[in-house]
Design goal:
heterodimer, A: mainly beta, Immunoglobulin-like, Apoptosis, Tumor Necrosis Factor Receptor Associated Protein 2, Chain A, 2 domains, four-stranded mixed beta sheet, about 0% helix, elongated, B: mainly alpha, two-stranded antiparallel ribbon, about 5% strand
Chain lengths: ~250, ~160
């Protein structure tokens, strides 16, 4: 993990609303994070632990924020997911004593276009016969696509396999394979995103699949593949006590 | 079920745990059940899958991540919150979220943000909004001093 100086995260909102008729309480929060690293941040994983006034866990959530993009040295806001089902009784009558512990990890992304395959005929095996390196940390040992006979509804049956290996000492929080089925007019028929964490010196088998594609539609189609890995850059921690949010409307 | 969710509700399930189950097996010997209809909240679906030892994320057909508090019937029309695309204005919004801070560390952080956006601001509108924000922050936060203001104003004028 890259060591950066004075990484910063701040809780800019942690509020509760008064209980509704069922006694349930809605929590909302947001944080801001500064990217002090020299790389773009393209994924942030945030875990929240909600504590009552006695400092005991009453809820929480873990979320991946993947639509985020923080350029080096800039700051971005993230709306927190704090979980659901907070009944007022969890807080022993002291709602204003609840607090949240937040841990966040930012990740950089290494992306590679793997290549494409022509849609194989029924009974044929198509292959990308090369090793694809991802930032020197991981590799994909080629991709195979076996076309089996169409199902009873005339839809294609494709078995795609891509073996991903983490050859580094770094934990890869997310190894991701994106597969697209493109028709002969260059329009996208289907796409598939699959991801999984891959610890150091271990592997994962991607098996993307396309559902409900008629054989006619897949004629002369092309399979396009790209891959990404998300590697940790920085970690952040913060804590905040809740304040009452009053909806003026 | 995954095919049904995709075909009927445009909901993609990214199954995260390994080994990936090919069918719903009752790993925990649970008999959890849920009737799938448009009024089901994604979090209930998430918890149902958890009962079957399946850890899933939800995406729409455009690969946008879907928050778990969305109803199934709303997945198709879900659009992620549109962010302010202008980096200067977006950063000014962030400064305003931090404006009531009581720590000098945060004030240093805010100054870093100001310095950065002063550097990238090109239009007159951007520069005047930055100026407006500096004056406002100076009014409401005593830790953001006249000296800080002067330093930033000099940068703007350069």
């Amino acid at each position: 993990m890259a060591k950066s100086k004075a990484s910063a995260m701040k809780v800019t909102k942690f509020t509760y609303q008064n209980p509704d008729s069922d006694g349930d309480i809605r929590l909302e929060g947001e944080i801001v994070i500064e990217n002090t690293a020299d790389f773009d941040v393209e994924l942030v994983k945030v875990s929240c632990t909600v504590l009552n006034g006695s400092g005991v866990t009453v809820g929480g959530d873990v979320s991946d924020y993947e639509n985020i993009f923080i350029t080096p040295k800039s700051t971005e806001k993230i709306d927190l997911s704090l979980g659901w089902s907070y009944h007022k009784d969890l807080f022993e009558g002291e709602l204003d004593k609840m607090s949240v512990l937040i841990e966040a990890t930012s990740f950089k992304r290494d992306f590679v276009k793997i290549g494409s395959l022509e849609m194989p005929d029924v009974g044929e095996l198509a292959m990308i016969k090369k090793n694809i390196s991802l930032g020197g940390l991981a590799e994909i040992r080629g991709i195979s696509a076996l076309r089996k006979k169409n199902d009873d509804e005339g839809q294609i049956e494709l078995e795609i396999r891509a073996g991903f290996r983490n050859i580094s000492d770094t934990h890869i929080e997310r190894a991701q394979l994106t597969s697209k089925l493109i028709d002969q007019r260059d329009a996208e028929i289907e796409s598939n995103v699959d991801y999984n964490p891959v610890p150091s010196k271990s592997g994962y088998l991607f098996q993307p699949s396309f559902y409900g594609v008629k054989a006619g539609k897949a004629k002369n189609a092309e399979l396009k593949f790209s891959a990404s890995i998300f590697v940790p850059l920085d970690t952040f921690t913060a804590q905040s006590t809740a304040t009452l949010y009053v909806d003026d409307y | 079920m995954i095919k049904h969710l995709r075909d009927k509700y445009s909901l993609g399930c990214v199954i995260k745990n390994y080994p990936k189950p090919h069918y719903l097996n009752t790993y925990k010997k649970n008999i959890a059940e849920l009737t799938i209809h448009g009024g089901v909240i994604l979090n209930d679906l998430y918890l149902l899958l958890k009962d079957f030892n399946i850890d899933a994320d939800f995406i729409n057909l455009k690969s946008h991540q879907i928050p778990k508090n969305i109803l199934l019937k709303d997945v198709k029309n879900y659009r992620p919150e549109k962010k302010e695309s202008n980096e200067v204005f977006r950063s000014l919004q962030i400064i305003s979220l931090m404006s009531e801070t009581h720590t000098y560390t945060d004030i240093d952080w805010i100054i870093r943000i100001y310095k950065r956006i002063i550097n990238i601001a090109t239009s007159q509108e951007e520069k005047s909004k930055i100026l407006e924000s500096i004056v406002k922050l100076n009014d409401i936060n005593e830790r953001f001093t006249e000296r800080d203001v002067k330093l930033l104003l000099e940068l703007i004028e350069k």
